[in-house]
Amino acid sequence: MALTGLQIFKLMPKTNCKKCGHPTCLAFSMALASSKIALDACPYVSDEAKEALGAASLPPVLKVTLGAGEKARDTGDETVLFRHDKRFFHPTCIAVSISDSLSDDEFEEKLSKINDLEFERVGERVSIDAIALNNDSGDADNFLKKAKIVAEKGKYFPILISSSVEALTSAVVATKAQRPLISAATVDNWEAVSKLAKENDCPLVVRGEDLDATASLAEKVSQVTKNIVLQTNSQNTVQKLSDLTQIRRQAIRKKFRPFGFPSIVEVSAKSPLSQIAEATTYMSKYASVVIINTCEKAHILPLCAFIQNLFSDPQQPAQVVPDIYPIGDADDNSPVYCTTNFSLTYYTVEGELSSTKMPAWLLATPTDGTSVLTAWAAGKFNGEKIAEFMEEIKLSEKIKHKTMTIPGYVAVIKAPLEEKSGWKVLIGPNEASGLPAYAKANNA
Ligand code: SF4
To answer: What percent of the chain is predicted at pLDDT more than 90?
Structure first.
């Protein structure tokens, strides 16, 4: 049974040193009782207390690492049900499935498309995370051959899916250096497959017919290995969503240990757009790995963007380092545009300016990651602040001319900015989408 905050407090050092990020040991104990922090955040807790705290010292959802080396991804280790309570830590892994029944040429072609599923968005590299190989052929030798290809040529960690223990065994042994996710231990094969996972140090999917069967199976498998990812055999979207939600809710609210692991789900939809809609449903609540079949870039990018937003810290707006950035082959005669350092604003403006193929400079002023009008309303994006920043980075020493374009929405700061900076200020369009036409019209 879960301990209360006061029961935990009795075992804490009571020095109130604040090293854990909480003002007192009591506040830390309360946070630990509600699973908002892990016990190891306190560096001074004694071994006796760790032992006495038992399950309370474990995170409600264990961290499980899938894959190895550069392809490895951490899953689980989440402490809240709602992002606004704190944040979600480990982004859902996107896995794209590939069938071993494809011909050799078709297989290579799809693998090559999967390997190409990476993008740059708001200054970050985003991509899929895993390649799920399905043993549709039912042939163990063919599965082994294709598993080796995925392990050698695939850019993402492998998931090996087969109902045959024989096929799984040969493929896992041949690719164990990649720590493939083995799918799956079921009520019929769990002893042999758990042993296979344990001996080769690979994570393992535990799949029951329903929630009760999955909990009972997870309890048995966890005696052999703790590298578990949970799955139920539910077939429709509503039931899958309900299962994923129950698994996470029981783990975090009730500390129900058999559900204290990451989860995996496969979309049922056939059409690519329905697959994407279904996948985002599961990512919202609370899949750690989602398997889809489409491998078109236009379908995958929205999923990556969704994950990027869902797993950001809601208390920390995405921002770029305040500075002056070149666009194209900018030199000291190129025009200067001014915006804020909110990532979405900055990269929207940067994208529009880049599309003109005209060199320019983009000044990302420090506004704590807020957008143009928000920053202006908060007094962070006005003539004085921008002029101060121009002075701080010695902008006049880098640029020969003294003309700058500001967003049309804040035309009101033109006069004070001219007065404080000594630069001539031009009023640009309200929206970034108007910049290409503006740049060409001004030959700026
Ligand atoms: Fe108390 Fe440990 Fe936090 Fe220090 S780090 S305030 S001892 S819980």
So the answer is: 84
